[in-house]
Amino acid sequence: MGDAFLPRILYLVHNLSDPAVARRLAMLRLGGAEVEIAGFRRADAPLADLPAETVVELDITHDARMLQRLLVTLKARYGAKRWAKVLTRPDVIIARNLEMLAVAEGLLSLWDEPPALVYECLDIHRLMLRQDRLGRGMRAVEQRLMRRANLLITSSPAFLERYFDEQGAPPALLIENKVFAPGHDVVGRNVALDGIDGPVRLGWFGALRCRKSLAALDGVSRAMGGRLKVTLRGRPALTEFEDFHETIEAAPHVNFGGAYRYPDDLPAIYSDVHLVWAIDFFEEGQNSAWLLPNRIYEGCLNGVVPIALAGTETAAFIERHGIGVVIPDIEQQTLQSLFAGMTPERLRELAEAVATVGKRAFRCEAEECVALVSRLAAVAGIKRETEMAA
């Protein structure tokens, strides 16, 4: 077993260059774990600079090419005896998504005493929800692999209620997508609190992948003739739009400011808007309705008022906190009525409500990292020195 305070963790990931992977690694290390990492790299992504003791790049994968990803997953699983030689025997293996859970199962037999296995799943892919033979087959594979797992990590209660509770999942640990920014104590401030007059300013930041949202925001901003300004920042999924950049060029009141640095740029980009768009139809009625997106935490931490769609977990989240605006749909009349009603007084009222919520609701603190690693240590049977002395 690892040190009483330093459980050894092997983190298996499907995309080494995903910024969320680096954040999770940093959380584990801040919580007191020693971490090694192995995984795939996207063909268009740079080599990852990750805060881990050992980084093993298993193979190159290509976005949206499922067969190729399946083949490299099988290669990594059945070639584990070769590539895992450089690894220390871990106390815990965390497998980030289904393909890495398959790789992890292949690793368990390499050591006389198998490590504990944790399945981390933060999105439910649409393939898993299909009602045809492929969907049933995918769920059957997941159910079989989950039998070896000691713990499930997920990010939204709706994923448990609407999916995992029906799949025979192991005990679950909920870790929300809160802003992880140790050493970055400065947060933004809603411009509505400063009483500055001008157009309503809306931000849509992060993973931009919903063409319905883009069309709706372009349409309502045109209809309002400059009284609504929309700013987009982040990484657009270009495969999901007919022509993202051409649409932006033609939109008179929509601006795309490119990618931003996390967490450094968060206070500045959110302090430039009144409202944050927290609506996504990318996987309508399924994953998009169940997830709690990063932008809800980023926006609220920096004082911005969230807009959510009724019936989603995001709407339930902001209603629990008594903040934000929930709308029934994104029809043009609904949006025009919403934004036309955003007087300076109304915006200030909404901004003050967000500002009264404690930052811990939106920001991951160091003690949460310690609690995470303590839970992982407990799953592996590691006791702290104080427990062993009792």
Automatic annotation (TrEMBL):
<protein>
    <recommendedName>
        <fullName>Glycosyl transferase family 1</fullName>
    </recommendedName>
</protein>
